[in-house]
Amino acid sequence: MIIESGIKAIGFMKRGTVYLLALILILSSAYEIYTVYMADSTDEWGFLGETYSAVIKIIMAEFILFDPKKSLPRAVGFYAMSIGLSRVINAITTLSQRSAFSLAVGLVLLFMGGNLIYSSYQYMKDTVRGRNGMLYSTCVLAFMQAIMLIFYYQTYKMTGSVEGFDLIPSAIMLIQYIVLLLMLDTEDVRYSTLLEKTSTRVESVTSSNMILKGFVLKRDDALVIKHLFDDRSTWQPISDGGPVEAEKRIRLVEGRIQSNMILQKWHGSDRIYVTVVNDDDGTILLGNRFSVTSVVSDVEGDNEFSNLRLFDDKKMLMQMAVEAFDPNAAKEAAA
Amino acid sequence: MKRAEILTAIMGLAIAIAGAIFLINGTGQGGGSTSGDVLSFIVMIVGGVTVVLFSKKGIKYGVILALMTLSISTLISNLYYILNVNDDIGIIFADLYVIISIVIIYYALSLIFHTTSGSAKAIICLGILAFTELFPTLFKLYNVDGFIPLADINIDKLAYGIVHLIVIFILTRKEMLLEGPKKRLDRNSMALYDGRCAPADCYIDVNDLDKVLGKSEEDWVHYSSGPIESEKEINLHGTNLGLRLQKWKGDDRRHVAVCMYNAGSYTVPLTFPIEFIVPDSEDRSVIRKLRFYGKDGMFIDILVKNYCDEPKGYLETFKMNFMKNKD
Prior knowledge:
heterodimer, A: 2 domains, five-stranded antiparallel β-sheet, four-stranded mixed β-sheet, about 55% helix, B: alpha+beta
């Protein structure tokens, strides 16, 4: 119950974060449009740059909001792409001012913005660059923005030639970068990188094909396996017209790695057929399949045994360590 | 003509044209080219033409020739400059170009001898050469208006820069990239995963249900030789795998084989003769899961979903609609 509530809460927070990213884009673009119409319209390049940047952010916010495959990693991808595009437009505006300083700043902005666009696109395609590319570009852009903000603030404080109001666009931009940096560090985004996906694939293969060294079977599940052939009271009877008489599913968990053991008793057979897959909720296709003809524990009684060995006719299949007996837990369960 | 051949031919042509422009400008009135320069221009023309002539041999062959041509021509002109001209600043740049040329030759040799030298060093070196030629022109262009008059004066520099950019572009193509550890890990883990596991959310399309549950074998592929009489492949969406329904000669049962979908080469990680297929509902319109039973504990569960109703990204939706319109 607690786990289910926790999962629901996490799901709610993730959905909330997706909408928050879209909201940040909409608010920042609304502010950009507001500044455009309040500012000096003779600065044609600045006018166009801010307007295009605002339009792109609104379009990307729509992409986030109406995405049929709505998820946090995809929302982060769209968010990063909108920032990259707005930076490229900003770079073109900066380059239009034709000075050595504008050239240097414009080229850095252009390169970093371009890198952010490319990395976010690659990220949404699940390929190699992705997160790191976005992380580097965003760090450089945030650093540049922070320097500009400090510079504006010092000028405002010391000379007063810059109004406090002028600090707001830089501050908003900096907030957008910081939000992206925070998002890039979330578990969902981290685990969507290629290396994490590769690790998950290898873990899936490991969990369905092997019992790891540190694995310990829960005592309740161990009792089910120990009594495979003499007590199947907790099993679910199957009456689908197929050969299965009864079925029992056990979840094997070791840290982050988990797999599911499907035990089946078939009509007319004394064996117990076992299928180990890493997820039993949906399609069950490839996995580790074997049959068990006997189970042996290291000690006879139900309380003292610490491991179970599974055999078929000719060979030993596996040994599973069992959780230590807890008399208090047993009393509570009995009560 | 294949894409790789076209790219190689363009690269060779660009080198030859750049060499010809250098030769015309350098030996014409006020050209002032040294004999080292002239020799390097001839190397570029001959090398470029050779790349074009051998473009059918493959992109790697073309890249080796192009890299050798560019580096040897740079090496010749700069060595001549170092040995014959007495100019401190110029010699520093010439030394740098000689080093760069040697690095590019090293990379070209590594391509010939199949060593595991990465393309990054060649890309950086070619990038430096392109940058040093193009940047002053582009900076002038940035500060003053008028692209055409400026380009006309600096045509040789632009040609030189563009040639290097073309080679860099080709070096970043898939055919030329050395597969790094991450890519290899990705490829191998995916192959291992496809052979041992399948995601629980993979499914067959509801439109394929008749192929699985029906008796008709009209659109099946028939074989005259071998033990298989006929076969039908069904896509398992959400994975690289597919189901091959097979009718074996002398066996009334259908067999199911799980293997890579739409692949030329594959292994079969799971196959068994089907004893029963049990849907989760008798009403075909609401079937959401099928269970295939074999013998001795063998079973598989397959989800059934409507592919069109499943959430898709913008590009996937676009592709699906495009394919629908095409059909």
